[in-house]
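Reading a protein record of the kind used here takes only a little practice. The integers have meaning only within a learned vocabulary of local backbone shapes. With that in mind, consider the following protein and its fold in token form:
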Amino acid sequence: VISHLGLCQKQIQFVEHHTCHAASAYFGSGSHSGTVLLTCDGEGDGVCATVGVGKGKEIERLAETPSDNSLGNLYSRVTFLLGMKPLDHEYKVMGLAPYADRSGVDESFEILRQFVRRSRKHPLQFENTRKVPSQFYYDILSRELANHRFDWIAGAIQKLTEELMLEWAKVAIETTGLSKIACSGGVFMNVKTNMRLMEDLDHSGLVIFPSCGDESAAIGAAYFVASQGSSDRISPIGPLYLGPEYGEEDVKKTLDKTELTQGYRIEQYSDIEGMIGELLAKGAVVARMKGRMEWGARALGNRSILANPSNLDVVRKINRMIKMRDFWMPFAPTLMDSSQGRYLLNPKSQPAPYMILAFRTVEESRRQITAALHQYDFTARPQILEESWNPDYYRILRLFEEKTGIGGVLNTSFNLHGEPIVCSVEDAIDTMRRSELENLTLGDYLITKQ
């Protein structure tokens, strides 16, 4: 690889996997004072979890758990047991969990809790109690959970994850005497676990690095290497609009080349945001592509499908048109920062710009943004948007609120089920052609399928 890139060996530095996770969370948070650093994933470089401390430009590791004792591996093997893709569909298991009967969940939980626990000898580590490496749990799980309902099992692994992670984090706070917490690693993609940490820990600040699976390891490596240099300036991660951008000329050239004529209407608007707000208020579903693409797993408005969140019928409409999601999986809202208090229970004023945290909601949300909530427990996984982070997108939300009184929209990623989020103009047009999507905005252009 070095040869292919035309680099020399001296230009390459290797950074250990969980150091990358810890550095992304710590330096990405922008806080360089005493912070507890928690990393947890399936495994990486022989480790599945670490506890550390960040002070100034230094990261010190206090404890690490070898990968044979992995809670993340247990969750992935349960995902496989339920007929879904391990290391991919864990979010579907999390979405299914609230629907399960509590007594059934407790029955499955009594079995799953016998696989991984917090270590009795080393309180900051996890411990495998089955004497079989966690990568090979599947055969035991399939035997011991035979005849357990699928939803019981989903609820049980989610309950175990929330309880173990909360207990582990509390001990880390007690051990270090620090109350700021920064977290990264694939297990922290579990937004319900993050909600428990936010609510139940006695913390003075909680940061979950956005899209904190292994896709963020390169960012953590860059942060770590930068911290070893002489500069004191290490910028927080900030807005995630870090990808490519396609201007009006790019859109026009692509439209001319693809010759979208029969069955499509193409119009250019001087105020495309106003047009989107009007379409959403009328109940239309609109795919939006404008500005730089978001980095990471979440669409944050620039490569998003948007809809009016007040009508549950829009969920079936979007699923039929393009998403084809599992019926129990919720969508999510983008809320203006000025409107979040009308919908979310957020007593600690927790920032949430990245869709990496879930929140409990107030009664009003079940009327105004019901289609963007989990339909069993009414939690939300919001993007709380500040105007300075994305002024054009914020303007759509404000115009939509003026027309409807609703301070947010339903926002889901612009892609076909199982495919990556669209990046280029060609991607967006191709996705529209292969779906029942009726409205697509590309920059200032609106394409309507007749």
